[in-house]
Amino acid sequence: MSYQHILVPVDGSKISLSAVEHAVSVAKAFNCKLTAISLVAEDPFSGADFYYSSVAIKDYLIQAYENAEKTLEEVKALAAKEGVTIETEIVKGYVSADTIQETAQSKNVDLIVMGSHGRKGFQKFFLGSFALDVLAQTVIPVLIVKE
Description:
It is found in: Cytoplasm. By secondary structure, the chain is α/β, with parallel strands linked by helices. The chain has 5 helices and 5 strands.
């Protein structure tokens, strides 16, 4: 099997950067295209039952974009260190498995590489598993990196 285009979602966490390292290795081995995305929620309070000010949203968006850009610059440096070219993009919308799956389909990706914190028990029950949601919702192969 050969890959043509790999997608790696990142959030700045240590595990997502570890996923980038794995994705870079696979992209280098298959000489394929590599894209990293960072998701930014346009309205992080959607569905909330309280009122919030537009100032809070504006401050959130400014900080979220700065964090995403900083993370994507770090991702570019990791790839460059290995001689791999990587495209990066901030994806606006919902921070969800659906958004990752839709982005992967729109970019004709044939592999998604992502990190998983490996939560168990009550942590998994309360916090869920983003990686498992992606895995369950896509027909595209998913490589889960745990460290």
